[in-house]
Design goal:
Layout lengths: L23 H4 L10 E4 L3 H7 L3 H6 L2 H4 L14 H9 L10 E10 L10 E9 L4 H4 L6 E8 L7 H4 L1 H12 L2 E5 L4 E5 L1 E7 L2 H8 L19 E3 L4 E3 L37 H8 L27 H6 L1
Parallel strand pairs: 2-7
Antiparallel strand pairs: 1-4, 2-3, 3-4, 5-6, 8-9
Length: 316
């Protein structure tokens, strides 16, 4: 519901037909309407087009394709295996090096402190990974896309608020957006894709649909986790779960003092599930809706999925 398209006079949502405003105005007609939820969304496609306007940033947007890669070292995201994997799946995009790869960062905080106030604020930030490391990690090129305000934590229902962002990402992938390249003095079609999501563990559980609470909180280890429950602290500890991912000759595997006492790590880590495998697993689960979700069958014993992953739906 966009206020600049004459939607302010509508009392019901034109998408879901639910009431938009609280009933407090009925008792006092002169009182201002109070919305149930507020979402501030800033489109990021114009920001990407604006990066190709000045010559200074236009030349830097091609840095990922022109810089010299040293074998065995990584100084930019273009040196990663995920970057090369995309070229193997979509070889047609190798010809056009101006396809923008994006990273999404989401986190929330309490703006009014922790003294009895439950008001929360969630920020969604997009970062283009075409610029050099000194530029793409600066605040100037981190695009604040969404501000989600509300009296309570959104938890798994944050998917409802991410819908405008997903629509724009799909539009940037499928639709040809005309952009002017100042360096080459011509118009080209810009495309973009979301490659990474950067967040902490609680936000990771909100975005993926896998609950990170309690022992089975790792989406990689799942029910084969090595997490420990601290009896005195009453919390789950993942202190010595990472040694299984090292190669068999690594010194840390035989270290009995710096990690768990008198234990040598001989376990081989399980392979990470691919997107197709996760999609087949949760295809029958319920997606995020505006009501409280019922937990799927065998939740807590075999898995920790609470909903269908929105980013997997976007991919497939």
């Amino acid at each position: 519901m966009l206020y600049w398209k004459n939607d302010t006079d509508l009392d019901y949502c034109k998408f879901c037909a639910e009431v938009r405003y609280k009933s407090t105005r009925e008792r006092n007609p002169n009182r201002k309407k109070t919305r149930y939820a507020i979402l501030m969304y800033l489109a990021f496609t114009p920001h990407l087009q604006r990066l190709y306007a000045p010559k200074a940033t236009t030349e830097q947007m091609m840095w990922h394709a022109n810089h010299q890669t040293v074998e065995g070292s990584m100084c930019h995201s273009s040196d990663t295996e995920a970057w090369r994997h995309f070229y193997r799946i979509y070889p047609d995009f190798v010809v056009e090096p101006r396809i923008v790869r994006l990273s999404l960062c989401m986190d929330g905080f309490v703006p009014h402190g922790h003294y009895g106030c439950t008001y929360s604020c969630w920020l969604i930030i997009l970062t283009p990974y075409y610029l050099p490391p000194r530029m793409c990690m600066s605040s100037k090129y981190m695009f604040l896309t969404m501000v989600i305000l509300g009296p309570s934590n959104k938890k798994c229902l944050i998917d409802v608020y991410l819908k405008p962002l997903i629509d724009e990402l799909q539009n940037l992938w499928y639709v040809d957006v005309l952009t002017y390249d100042n360096a080459k003095n011509k118009i080209f079609t810009i495309h973009g894709l979301l490659m990474w999501i950067v967040n902490d563990l609680p936000a990771y559980g909100m975005a993926s649909g896998w609950s990170t609470i309690s022992v089975i909180g790792c989406l990689t280890c799942m029910d084969d986790t090595r997490a420990l429950y601290l009896q005195n602290g009453r919390k789950t500890c993942y202190f010595d779960c990472h040694r299984q991912f090292l190669h068999q000759d690594h010194l840390y595997r035989r270290n009995k003092k710096a990690f768990t006492n008198n234990r040598v790590e001989r376990k081989v880590a399980r392979l990470r599930l691919m997107g197709e495998q996760i999609h087949d697993w949760i295809v029958e689960f319920s997606p995020a809706v505006e009501i409280l979700l019922a937990l799927p069958p065998r939740y807590g014993s075999e898995h920790k999925w609470r909903k269908k992953n929105i980013f997997l739906e976007f991919e497939y």
